[in-house]
TrEMBL record:
Residue span, Carbohydrate-binding/sugar hydrolysis domain: 74-205, 207-348
Organism listed in the record: Nematostella vectensis (Starlet sea anemone)
Protein name: Carbohydrate-binding/sugar hydrolysis domain-containing protein
Coiled coil: none
SMART domains the record matches: CASH, PbH1
InterPro entries: Beta_helix (IPR039448), Carb-bd_sugar_hydrolysis-dom (IPR006633), NosD_dom (IPR007742), PbH1 (IPR006626), Pectin_lyas_fold (IPR012334), Pectin_lyase_fold/virulence (IPR011050), SCF-Subunits/Alg-Epimerases (IPR051550)
Keywords: Repeat
Length: 436
């Protein structure tokens, strides 16, 4: 309930600001036209406001500010063409932002920082120059059921120790990642539809963490999920398909494209003095995902950290199902890798992999192509176009207790300068060449 001033059906078009509510003041602000001011509405020091059906645009800073534990409801407003964020939430403020159109801003649509919270739901956020929703410096909002599209940066960016629960949003056609996590950002990103972006679906940069779970990520021009391996995310239960590059890519160094995605606001940086947190030491993991119909590899690792790849279904990709192309300690366990256009699993020079309990079926080249070390055990490798397992020099794996179908080629093919220890495997149905 609101007991205080009612500000209704006014025109504000000159002066510093339209409405200031502070010191636990209450106000109901409805149906106003607010434009051309330094700022629109400011809610400070425990104040409470209801902001309904206003047009707030062309302000020199943000349309709405919440500070110092302020609360309120912002609903049904048209907020556009402001020079800073459409809505700025800070210092433990906790408003509800719903059913608004927030667009064409020179910066972000909604920014949450400095322990700001809030519920941001069922808004249309589009055509902003920076992130549609931008969370940093311990901001921790709930962002759900929004439609975020056609922005010139990320759909949702979480950085500098930002948190948040990001769920059930439709994020479409962004210039950068649909969701971008880095520099200590540690959100839960679940059940979103991230599609048709001009770059990657999700970017997890240096120091990024969090849980990326049960999202539908498809039709993006870059990778479905791009991860810098010094980051330690959990990528679980997602559907990742129809990407212009690999489904999931783990890399060891940023490239120019991702480095140029400058997420942090210079104005905000001057307002805060934070130390970048160091990433934790847990292993990055890709577990229980469905990775399909991508133009590159299903999962591509070219990093130098450890990685767990477990219980994924990886199929119908245009390159390898799983490609490990740099030296690292990798666990590949209990995956289904089938019908990919190149090898099922490819382990390149210097890598040490534990490949255990996988089903590798119907790939157009070899089931497994190995030039590294490690253990290959208890896998079913069947009906692939070339050899079941091919070992290149200087590969030296231990191959044991596998079921290998040689088809029209060899069950195990050991090339020049390769080594290995091959024992206690079941190798059968050799029709035209030797088992070895």
């Amino acid at each position: 309930s609101i007991h205080g001033c009612i500000v209704r059906n006014n025109l504000f078009n000159s002066g510093k600001g339209a409405v200031l509510v502070r010191r636990r003041g209450h106000a109901w602000i409805e149906g106003n036209e607010i434009h051309g001011l330094v700022h629109g509405i400011r809610c400070l020091t425990g104040a409470k406001i209801v902001v309904l059906n206003n047009r707030i645009h062309n302000c020199e800073t943000s349309a709405l500010f919440f500070r110092e534990r302020s609360v309120g409801l912002v609903a049904g407003n048209h907020i556009f063409s402001n020079k800073e964020a459409g809505i700025d939430i800070r210092s433990c403020s906790d408003p509800i932002i719903q059913h608004n159109h927030i667009h064409s801003g020179k910066r972000s649509g909604v920014v949450v920082l400095d322990r700001g919270r809030g519920l941001v739901r069922d808004n249309d956020i589009y055509d902003n120059n920076e992130a549609g929703v931008y969370i940093l410096y311990r901001g921790n909002p709930v962002v759900r059921h929004n439609r975020i599209w056609s922005g010139r940066a990320a759909g949702i960016a979480i950085t500098e120790d930002g948190r948040g629960h990001i769920s059930h949003n439709d994020i479409c056609g962004m210039e950068w990642g649909g969701v971008d996590i880095r520099n200590g950002g540690n959100p839960v990103v679940s059940n979103n539809w991230i599609r048709e972006g001009h770059a990657d679906g999700i970017v997890i940069g240096e120091g990024g963490k969090g849980i990326v779970m049960d999202n539908d990520i498809r039709g993006n021009s870059g990778c479905g999920v791009w991860v810098l391996t010094i980051a330690k995310p959990v990528i679980y239960g997602n559907r990742i398909g129809e990407s212009g590059d690999s489904g999931i890519a783990f890399v060891s160094n940023s490239d120019l494209h991702h480095d140029n995605q400058q997420l942090t606001s210079p104005v905000v940086q001057l307002d805060q003095d934070q130390v970048r947190p160091r990433p934790d030491k847990n292993t990055a993991s890709a577990v229980n995902n469905i990775v399909f119909d991508n133009a590159g590899h299903g999962i591509h690792f070219c990093g130098n950290e450890s990685l767990l790849i477990r219980a994924n279904s990886i199929h119908s990709n245009k390159a390898c199902g799983i490609c490990i192309s740099k030296p690292a300690d990798i666990t590949i366990q209990d995956n289904s890798v089938c019908r990919n256009d190149s090898h099922g699993i490819c382990i390149e020079l210097g890598s040490r992999a534990s490949i255990h309990g996988n089903g590798v079926y119907g790939n157009k080249k070899c089931g497994m192509c190995v030039s590294g070390k490690g253990t290959i055990r208890e896998n079913d490798v069947m009906s692939n176009g070339l050899h079941a397992i091919q070992i290149f020099g200087p590969g030296d794996p231990y191959v044991t207790h596998n079921r290998l179908e040689s088809g029209h080629h060899n069950g195990v093919c050991i090339m020049e300068n390769a080594r290995g220890f091959v024992e206690m495997n079941e190798i059968f149905e050799s029709r035209s060449r030797a088992t070895f």
